[in-house]
Amino acid sequence: xxxxxxxxxxxxxxxxxxxxxxxxxxxxxxxxxxxxxxxxxxxxxxxxxxxxxxxxxxxxxxxxxxxxxxxxxxxxxxxxxxxxxxxxxxxxxxxxxxxxxxxxxxxxxxxxxxxxxxxxxxxxxxxxxxxxxxxxxxxxxxxxxxxxxxxxxxxxxxxxxxxxxxxxxxxxxxxxxxxxxxxxxxxxxxxxxxxxxxxxxxxxxxxxxxxxx
Amino acid sequence: xxxxxxxxxxxxxxxxxxxxxxxxxxxxxxxxxxxxxxxxxxxxxxxxxxxxxxxxxxxxxxxxxxxxxxxxxxxxxxxxxxxxxxxxxxxxxxxxxxxxxxxxxxxxxxxxxxxxxxxxxxxxxxxxxxxxxxxxxxxxxxxxxx
Lengths: 213, 146
Hints:
The structure holds two protein chains of two kinds. Chain A is 76% helix and 0% strand. By secondary structure, chain A is mostly helical.
């Protein structure tokens, strides 16, 4: 009961912080819901089988039942499910980033891509950390604390995500530098009323400042 | 249950891709070949054909061999998962180097950046939706009494 109350309060707090105007419509994206909430369930179905998945989901929603004993396998299943959700967050942010990059000529079509990217991560983290993470801690405590089970491989997804963030930052810097350079060349072009080379040398910059001054 | 789960997961990924305005932007055959064939060759080189096929067989069938064999199979699949993601990351970094060559043209830069990210996306999908479920299944099989 306390866990459910804590989850509801935490989720409500996050939503309240993200919604200063009181409208939650922009927090709903069907594509993001499909990628980050449904697809991990299918992966879990492939990994656990139907009965075990049902048992895991029942435990996830209802909490520990006194009639059955928790085992290391339950903890492993929960951790695996959490990792599937984290990976789905990575898939959503990568898919959204690709759509953003390839539709940049049409700014009005960027909305769904940004929604898939940002909301996908939001949903994935909400489920993986708030819902499943707390249950994992609960089972861990029930089993005696710090139980060592085989670690499901989340590292590939985390590494891929780190590479993506690194490349995104570099791309942003590159893009801004190129656009800034072009803009400077355009300003010089306007000032001189004549075409200028893209790469500005020292003399051209000095000429530019002379014109400006 | 494995084929059903995979089928649904992959169909979902395809459905989301095709629901977007331009489905062609999510398809790149070179990236797909890179993240599927290269890790396969590498895993065959690292673990050998027999170990790899035994790991796949153990994961896909209902056989339950002794613990050591299962641990070995799980390790093989873990290496395969790591190799797939590493290939995706490597291809993305190589693509990034290519982007440096065309950085004087911002109109080309962002569309190419989208293509460059595709191998990473394919690699994460393969690792998270196909290889990791197999690995989980092997672990659960080898720890049935715990």
